[in-house]
From TrEMBL:
PANTHER family: ERAD-ASSOCIATED E3 UBIQUITIN-PROTEIN LIGASE COMPONENT HRD3, SEL-1-LIKE PROTEIN. It holds the Pfam family Sel1. This is SEL1-like repeat protein. It comes from the Bacteria.
Length: 647
């Protein structure tokens, strides 16, 4: 940049104008804020004062970028636009000036916006052409044009024109704008674009192999997933993708793959294998016509839809070319039934082919199919064979499965020492289930001497990864162990973590919390906590919690009002879970009308289910109050209930 561009003045202006401009700029560029930027501005000021040769400024070498720190975003130049004369072989349309009177900076701006709306990808050349018209005007017109364009780009999303203008006018270098906040915002948007463009560039090239297309597509999907929840990032990500699509000769296969991986298409339900283009994709037509058209032409729309899945087609193409990773991916698609109709036999065949070529994930998948008997006959020996191959190649999930076979299988496959070895291998790699089950082997002394310290070590590691049962057992050890220092605060912490986990099995932790708050009931709030956790445990089927709640409501406490109806509700729940004691209690409450109106048929039904003598009511006395038909109906209901509830 020459001194006049830095100062924003017309070459050869009067000295007083130079001084006024410098005084205005230096207010926002002080030496204590940025010595380099101040020196740059000061040098430009002195050069302008010494100016005496009209052509000198045209020959000056471009200065180093000004590093403004006040309200200016620093650049990371990544993208260089093509020369203004041509763009992708398409000449720019001529701009017609109707009369000299209409030739104003505003008219040029209007024509620029109109052209850019028609062909947005030609933005660099459109801007260059607009500026060529302004060369006939004074510097003031150019400055007005620049500021008006800045405001327009702030209001209207024209990404390619924004990038071109930011680079042409060097908004990242020049201070003194009357709209510094807008200038900074646009600079930040451009930097965001360049960061995203740099991130995706490695995954675009001409003449990619089918395997490269598959792998690159997955990488692009990962980048998209990391950006999709940020609206601003997603907008610039889409522009970067369109620029790359326009830049390279990509196969239709790869572009169709991107449409699916980047969520430019969707389907209503998993089982409906018809994909429809999203509104987000269709809106891209306004931002980059040629990139949009290339993507659109890559898929074969049938009306509003296309099928089959582009991901599946890409994978099939790579598999047909002999890529073993594609064989595994095809097997996974057939196994999961996502991109294509589920076919476990085809999944088994593709997994086998890939596993035989040492694809570790395929070896593990094949082990799963043999162990579960899916797509093939169940065969634990074959499952162990494939798990072993994957485990020896470092697959933690295979090591875990191998450990379970060694621990739980029938002879001769059962081997506790081997189970311990494989659990340890997987646990060391951070496998949470392996860590938990290794802790179980130590706490139970299976294949190794009982060791609560080692059990606690592995339970804790698994608990920290969020595994509910490990959190529960970690809390139990802090609460009860004699081998590690007891710590009720840590026990309470891990019981709470397990209770709030939300997974199946949280009832045990909820029960422990309920007991804790019930025991420490000096604070009235603790009673509310106790009821909350006991209720949660009871709803999840913890019998002890159900009985505790039922008794509290049946007799009442100093903090809980007596409520026989609530008591009956919880006793009946325990009865349905198979508790004989609860069945007797429920029968007695129906017979005596406790918490409900007297219902002899319900009482007889629960007496029949319980099967033994009821300690609270005489069966013969109850029989005298019932007709034979009522007894038959109650006994039939009892039989149905036992069958349905499996009690």
């Amino acid at each position: 940049m020459n001194c006049w561009e830095i100062l924003g003045l017309q070459p050869g202006v009067e000295e007083r104008d130079i001084k006024r401009r410098y005084a205005k700029l230096v207010k926002n560029c002080r030496p204590e804020d940025s010595p380099e930027a101040w020196q740059q501005l000061h040098d430009a000021y002195e050069q302008a004062l010494r100016y005496d040769d009209e052509d000198q400024w045209q020959e000056e070498e471009e200065e180093q970028p000004i590093n403004m720190s006040r309200g200016i975003v620093h650049p990371r130049p990544v993208m260089t636009f093509r020369a203004p004369n041509t763009f992708s072989g398409h000449p720019l349309p001529d701009v017609t000036i109707k009369s000299e009177g209409e030739f104003t900076w505003q008219a040029v701006l209007d024509m620029l916006c109109e052209e850019n709306e028609t062909t947005p990808e030609h933005a660099p050349m459109q801007l260059a052409k607009a500026l060529s018209f302004l060369e006939k005007k004074d510097l003031s017109s150019r400055m007005c044009f620049e500021e008006a364009l800045l405001l327009h780009l702030h209001r209207v999303f024209r990404p390619l024109l924004t990038l071109a203008a930011a680079q042409t006018f060097r908004w990242h270098l020049v201070a003194g704008s009357r709209q510094p906040a807008i200038q900074t915002e646009i600079n930040e948007s451009c930097l965001l674009y360049y960061r995203i463009e740099k991130q995706i560039t490695p995954f675009f090239a001409s003449n990619l192999s089918p395997l490269e297309e598959m792998e690159n597509g997955k990488e692009m999907a990962t980048i998209y997933q990391s950006l999709k929840d940020n609206e601003e990032s997603l907008k610039w990500f889409d522009i970067a993708v369109l620029n790359k699509v326009a830049e390279f000769e990509l196969s239709d296969n790869y572009m169709a793959l991107l449409i699916e991986y980047l969520s430019y298409s969707w389907r209503k339900e998993k089982m409906i294998r018809k994909w429809k283009l999203t509104e987000r994709f269709n809106n891209l037509a306004m931002q980059h016509h040629s990139g949009y058209k290339k993507l659109l032409n890559a898929i074969k729309l049938k009306g509003l839809f296309y099928y089959p899945s582009s991901v599946f087609q890409s994978c099939l193409h790579a598999a047909e070319q002999g890529y073993s990773l594609a064989w595994y991916s095809l097997g996974k698609m057939y196994y999961e039934g996502d991109e294509v109709s589920q076919d476990l036999k085809l999944a088994f065949n593709w997994f086998t082919r890939a596993a035989q070529h040492n694809i570790i994930d395929a070896q593990y998948a094949l082990g799963i199919m043999y162990s579960d008997g899916r797509g093939t006959d169940k065969n634990i020996s074959e499952a162990r064979k494939w798990f072993l191959l994957a485990a020896q190649n470092g697959n933690a999930s295979a090591q875990y499965k191998l450990a379970r076979i060694s621990r739980f299988a029938d002879e001769p496959l059962r081997n506790y020492e081997e189970a311990l070895q494989w659990y340890l291998s997987a646990a060391t790699q951070g496998h949470d289930l392996a860590q938990y089950e290794l802790g179980q082997m130590y706490i139970q002394g299976i294949g190794v001497e009982r060791d609560e310290v080692q059990a606690h070590r592995w339970f804790l590691q698994s608990a920290e990864q969020g595994y509910l049962y490990a959190q529960y057992h970690t809390a139990r050890l802090y609460s009860e162990s004699e081998s590690i220092p007891q710590d009720q605060e840590k026990a309470l912490y891990w019981f709470t973590k397990a209770a709030k986990n939300g997974a199946d099995g949280a009832g045990d932790a909820m029960y422990e919390l309920g007991k804790y708050y019930l025991t420490n009931n000096d604070d009235p709030e603790n009673n509310a906590e106790a009821i909350q956790w006991l209720t949660g445990a009871a709803q999840r089927g913890r019998i002890e919690a159900i009985f505790l709640l039922a008794e509290m409501y049946l007799y009442g406490t100093k903090d809980i009002a007596k409520d026989e109806n609530h008591a009956l509700h919880w006793y009946e729940k325990a009865a349905r879970l198979g508790s004989t004691e609860a069945q007797h209690q429920t029968a007695a409450m129906y017979a005596q009308g406790t918490g409900t109106k007297i219902d002899n048929k319900q009482a007889w039904m629960w007496l029949t289910i319980a099967g033994n003598n009821n300690p609270w009511i005489e069966k013969d006395a109850l029989r005298c109050l019932m007709s034979e038909q009522d007894i038959q109906d109650a006994e039939q209901t009892a039989a149905n209930c036992k069958r349905l509830l499996r009690i």
